[in-house]
Amino acid sequence: MSADSAMPLVPAVSTPATALTAPTAPPTAPPAGQAPGPATAAPGGRGAWLAWGIGVSVYVLAVVHRTSLGVAGIAAAARFGIGPSALSTFAILQVLVYAGMQVPVGLLVDRFGPRRVLSCGLLLLTAGQLGFALTTDFGTALACRAVLGCGDAMTFVSVLRVGARWFPARRNPFIAQLTGLVGTVGNLVSTLVLSQVLHSAGWTPTFGCTALLGLGVLAVVLLFLRETPDSRPRAPLFRDPAHDPGRERQQAPARPPLLPQIRAAWREPGTRLGLWVHFTTAFPASAFLLLWGMPFLMQGQGESRATAAGLLSLIIVVSMGFALLFGQLMSRRPAARTPLVFSVVLGTGALWAAVLSWPGPHVPMWLLLVLVVVMGSNGPASLVGLDYARPVNPPERGGTVSGIVNMGGFVAAVLALFGIGLVLDLLTPGGGNGYTPHAFRLAFCVLYLPMALGLSQIVRLRPLAARREAELGLHRPRTRPAG
Prior knowledge:
Layout (H helix, E strand, L loop, with lengths): L44 H23 L5 H8 L3 H29 L1 H21 L3 H16 L2 H11 L5 H30 L1 H22 L22 H5 L6 H10 L1 H32 L4 H28 L4 H20 L8 H11 L2 H5 L1 H6 L8 H29 L10 H7 L4 H25 L11
Helix pairs in contact: 1-4, 1-5, 1-6, 1-7, 1-8, 3-4, 3-5, 3-17, 4-5, 4-6, 4-8, 6-7, 6-17, 7-8, 7-12, 11-12, 11-13, 11-17, 11-19, 12-14, 13-14, 13-19, 17-18
């Protein structure tokens, strides 16, 4: 789940929590209540929602592609003649590619703009899914999922950049949460629609049609997406920004070298803190939804397939409510970031401890329900990491910073996916997939290793990030305008 993984109302108090408003070195914050500058002084309104809506439609389609294999595991095993271990490589490879692409994609967004990157992402998504629909060879299918992962990686950071350019800075937390929220619709489409279509229409028509949807969305992006309020619609996709009127011309000369761009972003304690917040909060739900949730509920807890699918869907639905709640809260009260993060991490850890230590082979349904509700907060809480990173970085590093932060949770998810599978294999005599409830309980203890690592880094970096924000004068109360 970008999960990533989705996430945009207008609060009346507090200075920007997630805007890309920090000036270049030596940084000095604008006076309280002063507009942050041209890159973030976006008007909002109908045009902003249209631009964001076009961008987020790409992200929804990417989530459909990303999660489509989750409802086709049995069919994929039969089509490619593979077992559970080989099947799990699809998910792990896709997440690895996604995580590895985050920083390069951020640099591309900063250098060439979100419209170009979204367009390239759509082409890769379409090519990867179409190849996956047509091939019957496992190696080719694996390569197609890697291509799909590259395209998927180009969507979320690009949509965040569109939102940052179109909406006022104080709305950034809500825009980010709303992007994540809308993206979960793609997960529901896979769970509720794609699984039925696959059962009735078959493999190639199902994945082929979802691939071709990308061409329609690409046409909308090329024809109607405006990156900024003063950019031209239907601008050429490949152009020299120096000859483009408006904002692009003003920004064209400021293109720092790539490695200094990454180093400058990484030097900010808020960037590193944001990465570790994303790392620590996102992965429990990601590992559960991507691969191990269904086997844990069916083989480890004895639930039916329908009940297990309902519990997984509940995580997605609950996350929508948390996204709205956290987005409003972070927009209005930036000081609530750290208490919120610790509440989600410690709450998730406590619920998993209760489940894994429950006497007897199966835990009661009420406890499973509480667990999945709490895990519904994981994805929205991970986006709070962006709220640490963006205020202390200037606008021209926005994509790079978002990519660095967004990488954290997916790296942790890979570690959890691999660790759980490794323990299950060690505890299953003779191999196979006949995992016992006891094996699942020991395997899911792996979750505490990334969690402990992430918490230690958050505790270490939070004072440094707080001092940096104080230097910049961020989050100081400001007076409402008269009237």
